[in-house]
């Protein structure tokens, strides 16, 4: 059996990815050099694409012209191969929750340390973010073409957007997304697994935006009550992480120094 036929058989049987170790185990090539040459040739003719050292995705017909496949097609299989927990986060999660309004240029994935270098294939750029651990109870699954993937729930998505505000285009963009995402946020049911995972300052910024920009007073009140019982005293913190900390304008409830003006976009 040729390597190409072996790959075609995998695709037919619902296996969209493979590792070089699996190819070696199948004993399809007489030498390592021939194997590497064949893999290189199949990448060149857009039969497969390398998404990690020694790990490949089989390019289905509908993506051949692009020469790559979206990360949703293989991210779950790749992370299983790497034996790393993960979840799709921020703008990518917001898009899958119906709240991004436009497809993000990067595909954002949260995983755990240590860092690994993963290839950005043609037309697919993955933004990697790292934490010491992930909040398993705050993750949900979504169906994809090849199975399921793990994404952050609405509250975790919102918190990540606020925490990584500089990576997603600033707080005005964050607030625009929160206007729609807030419909899916249930503070009383979604807060507990995230109480200590999310930094207190992020909750303060999020609460301020909910109440004063998005106009979700009920959600803001629920968040404030959760924080009051679990986190205690607030210290004044800047609203934006990318602007000078100017204490001249303050929000006393959330203990926020308002150092940037937030304007949401018209949807």
UniProtKB/TrEMBL annotation:
Entry-linked InterPro entries: AbiEi_C
Residue ranges annotated for the AbiEi antitoxin C-terminal domain, each copy included: 69-211
Domain of life (superkingdom): Bacteria
Pfam family, one: AbiEi_1
Protein's name according to its UniProt entry: AbiEi antitoxin C-terminal domain-containing protein
Species in which this protein is naturally found: Prevotella pectinovora
